[in-house]
User: Fold this.
Amino acid sequence: MASCFNGGAGWPEPVVRVQAVSDTCGGTIPERYVKPPSERPSPAFSGNSSSDDAGGLKSIPVVDLSMPDVDEACQAACREWGFFQAVNHGVPPELLRRARASWRGFFRQPAEVRERYANSPATYEGYGSRLGTTKGGPLDWGDYYFLHLLPSSLKNHDKWPSLPPTLRETTEEYGDEVLHLARRVMRLLSTGLGLEASRLPEAFGGVGGEGACLRVNFYPRCPQPELTLGVAAHSDPGGMTMLLVDNHVRGLQVRRPADGQWITVDPVPDAFIVNIGDQIQVLSNAVYKSVEHRVTVSAAEDRLSMAFFYNPRSDLPIAPMAELVTADRPALYPEMTFDEYRVFIRQRGLAGKAQLESLQATAKKASGSSVIDVSCPGPPAADTSSS
Ligand SMILES: O=C(O)CCC(=O)C(=O)O
Assistant:
């Protein structure tokens, strides 16, 4: 039995680290990590930019940020897939290596060092192993570290690990570079909507007004990867995510909007996987899609990923931008701040696209408007493993 840590105030039960479960569970994972058959990973399609029989892309597009037509490529990817892999993005590969190595170094520290940073559901900052506070609720096969980068009033190096010794400095440098990249992509997305480059960034609170945080995920080896997930299916509640993954270990699956199939992403080495979150789906009145994704785990290798979440200022009202609301396409979502929006996730954990869909239903009820369905279709029966 893995040792329990009775974490910071607020968790409904003792917290168990997945790293400890992985080390001690032998060949059978505990029941809490076993997903219902309909949610278990199935053999999924994979491939980069190769076409399917109908000429469409099999997997998420790769966008070269150094090309002159980059804004068109970005906006097409975000309309069709809500996801792309960004290459030639300007963040030095050497910094990516250092960032990955620093965080692997943290997850290799002895348990008592890691536990100094144990988090609580009040802010989720620190070392964690679950989302949501439902007692007895399902658990994912992954531990994580969550920290704030912006606004600067929330950034506190004392809440970041002090070991390995290079981690704080490297994370600071990494955060600056990825922030710069996120701001550039935001301007491209804004022009892709036919708006001024500054329009979408302003809706987030302008330069310095935005929010940014980092979630470093560590998925230990799992003896029964076919029964569980590293992160259950969800769309990202925030604005936009810049994800750095291991170059050689696959795990991310994206639910292809065209048909609801789960597609395994083959990572392009050192690319950032960029995806639209719920707040940009709302602001763009669903022109850009916030698409469900999930993470599979491996029996052979552990995996590390770094998700940089770029968010609107948390107290700004977020609603479809006026320029994108017409008589034919009324506002699909009511106004809500990001602070209000994320209460749902913090209490209930990740729940596919349930939150965005309930928001859309509220808007429809309020306006009495006819239904515009922007959701992804459900997965075809053949794609849901029942093993
Ligand atoms: O690890 C991954 O590939 C994705 C992680 C993710 O979806 C998340 O942290 O929200």
